[in-house]
């Protein structure tokens, strides 16, 4: 566990054992967070460029560690946010996608609370959008969704709080059928900024332009309009909102190559609503954090897949009226997020 981090605000309270306020009050609710598990029943390997080690088989054991810790909490988490890339794309090449997904879902099943699954690029390396919509990863089924086939929805775990799950591959060349309008729009967009024949190679001539790669994506206007509407409702109800996505949307919360294509449009919407207090994402395995000028905490979670077997990468978030306290494990630092 790392040093306790705070935002740019001056804060009076730090997290103690049991994560209580000074007056001993319990949190209103808690939830678990984990990102980029990328499980595969394979020996350790490396990323596409051969520069970063990945621990495919042990990632399932680290998920098991997280489940055991969450189950042992005095105030057990009400739900878990799984921030995308739950199994690795290499499973597809080995005909093991369904088997790997079943192993991970079985492990999640050992812990009772609901799991809200965000879709990342590795979900689309393994499955088509229609397959995902009919799978256990469709955690938004039956809810208020952003549109047909868009994995974006919202839920309220407690009075005064709302969580919004976004679909960062709604506009992409890996998350859409080639004959679809959204695929054509995505292809034109990426080719306008990336001249490489291999679209997973970043253009590289400006830092944030590097985001125009095939393993990233963006948000359709339909989804952006839906998000704006959900946040308007939250503003009116004086709710506090946490928005989650696989891909980060603030350039200072991640490496530029892991940024959503149209991050600026999302930021514009988030910053126009006083209800938004936090944006959580995965995708960048090194993690990141930034408190923007609107007071929104942009938290990027470190990835399980690049976490050595003798460490961990998950967190438990304790939610209070005026703050969220993240208690990290292993590579993930403790953070105090005031709002």
Automatic annotation (TrEMBL):
Subunit structure: Monomer.
GO molecular function: 2',3'-cyclic-nucleotide 2'-phosphodiesterase activity; ADP-ribose diphosphatase activity; CDP-glycerol diphosphatase activity; manganese ion binding
Family classification: Belongs to the ADPRibase-Mn family.
The keyword ATP-binding belongs to this UniProt entry's keyword annotation: no
Catalytic activity entry: ADP-D-ribose + H2O = D-ribose 5-phosphate + AMP + 2 H(+); CDP-choline + H2O = phosphocholine + CMP + 2 H(+); CDP-glycerol + H2O = sn-glycerol 3-phosphate + CMP + 2 H(+)
Lineage: Eukaryota, Metazoa, Chordata, Craniata, Vertebrata
Cofactor list: Mg(2+)
Ranges where the Calcineurin-like phosphoesterase domain occurs: 30-286
EC number: 3.6.1.13, 3.6.1.16, 3.6.1.53
Protein name in UniProt: Manganese-dependent ADP-ribose/CDP-alcohol diphosphatase
């Amino acid at each position: 566990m790392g040093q306790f981090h705070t935002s740019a605000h001056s804060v009076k309270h730090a997290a103690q054992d049991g994560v209580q306020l000074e007056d001993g009050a319990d949190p209103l609710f808690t939830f678990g967070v984990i990102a980029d598990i990328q499980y595969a029943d394979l020996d350790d390997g490396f990323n596409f460029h051969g520069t970063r080690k990945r621990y495919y088989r042990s990632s399932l054991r680290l998920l098991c560690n997280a489940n055991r810790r969450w189950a042992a909490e005095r105030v057990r988490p009400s739900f878990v946010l799984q921030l995308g890339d739950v199994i690795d794309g290499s499973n597809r090449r080995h005909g093991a996608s369904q088997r790997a997904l079943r192993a991970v879902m079985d492990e999640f099943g050992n812990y009772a609370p609901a799991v809200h699954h965000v879709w990342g690029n590795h979900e689309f390396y393994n499955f088509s959008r229609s397959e995902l919509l009919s799978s256990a990863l469709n955690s938004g089924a039956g809810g208020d969704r952003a549109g047909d086939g868009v994995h974006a929805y919202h839920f309220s775990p407690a009075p005064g709080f709302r969580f919004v799950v976004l679909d960062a591959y709604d506009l992409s060349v890996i998350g859409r059928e080639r004959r679809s309008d959204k695929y054509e729009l995505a292809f034109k967009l990426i080719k306008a900024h990336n001249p490489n024949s291999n679209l997973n190679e970043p253009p590289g001539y400006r830092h944030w332009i590097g985001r125009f790669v095939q393993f990233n994506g963006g948000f359709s206007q339909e989804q952006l309009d839906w998000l704006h509407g959900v946040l308007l409702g939250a503003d009116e109800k004086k709710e506090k909102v946490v928005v989650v996505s696989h891909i980060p949307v603030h350039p200072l919360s991640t490496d530029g190559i892991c940024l959503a294509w149209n991050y600026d449009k999302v930021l514009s919407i988030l910053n126009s609503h006083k209800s938004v207090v936090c944006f959580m994402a995965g995708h960048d395995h090194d993690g990141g954090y930034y408190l923007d000028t609107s007071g929104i905490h942009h938290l990027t979670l470190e990835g399980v897949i690049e976490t050595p077997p003798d460490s961990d990468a998950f967190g438990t978030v304790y939610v209070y009226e005026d703050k969220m306290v993240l208690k990290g494990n292993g590579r993930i630092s403790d953070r105090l997020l005031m709002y």
